[in-house]
Amino acid sequence: MADKHRNMSALRALAGALAALLALAWAAPAAAAPSPRDVSYLIATHQGNLYAIAAGKLAAQRGTNEDVRRLGQTFVDDHTRLDAELRTLAQQLKVPLTDQLDGPEQDQLKVLAAAPAGDAFDQLWITKQIEQQGQLYNGIDLELNYGYDERVKNLARDADDVILAHIGELNTVDREVSAPAG
């Protein structure tokens, strides 16, 4: 009887240890550090969002074309929302993000801020935004095809339609602003 009790206790201990190991194995992928590809996407997209927000504010304030001003405010609203979602995920993944623009985005913003108001500003803003939204779209494509973390890929999927809509609207406004008056 004592042997049966000892065997039962050993079996329970083994089952408990196995359950603990399974729990650790299940939790390990969630706790794993994100891949360099995923980290790169989060950092680059965050910088792109910061730029789009700042450039959108410039367009909303300095644009002379009503559609440029409206689209600028749309960029502020959309990229603020997208960046809030990105920041939440980056924090969960322990990916540090800066609150400051740096690199080429900062230089592009300086060019926009220095541009004279009027039609020249509107055209420059549209051109720079088509380039920047295209870069964001390319980053989304890379993440969807080569990223590892499903949460980061889902973030990219959510941004995909927004960025495509921005590119479409920019192209429409570009045709209107570039069309000769007549």
What's the SSE blueprint?
Layout: H1 2-31, H2 36-62, H3 66-92, H4 104-114, H5 119-146, H6 150-178
> Terminal Cα separation, in Å?
103 Å
> What sort of overall outline do the alpha carbons produce when their principal axes are compared?
elongated
In the CATH hierarchy, what is the class of the largest domain?
Mainly Alpha
Overall structural domain count: 2
The succession of helices and strands, N to C, reads HHHHHH
**What is the residue-mean pLDDT, rounded to a whole number?**
88
Helix content: over 70%
By CATH, the superfamily of the largest domain comes out as: Ferritin, core subunit, four-helix bundle
- The structural class is mainly alpha
Largest sheet: none
- Relative strand content: under 5%
Determine the CATH topology of the largest domain. Ferritin
Radius of gyration: 25 Å
What count of helical segments does DSSP give? 6
What's the architecture of the largest domain, going by CATH? Up-down Bundle
Query: What's the assembly state of these chains?
Result: single chain
Count the beta strands. Answer: 0
Keywords: Signal
Organism: Catellatospora bangladeshensis
Signal peptide: 1-32
Protein name: DUF4142 domain-containing protein
Summary of the model, kept short:
The protein has two domains: 1-32; 33-178, Up-down Bundle (Ferritin), CATH 1.20.1260.10. The protein is 84% helix and 0% strand.
Task: Offer a few descriptive terms.
single chain; 182 residues; mainly alpha; Ferritin; 2 domains; 6 helices; DUF4142 domain-containing protein; Ferritin-like; DUF4142
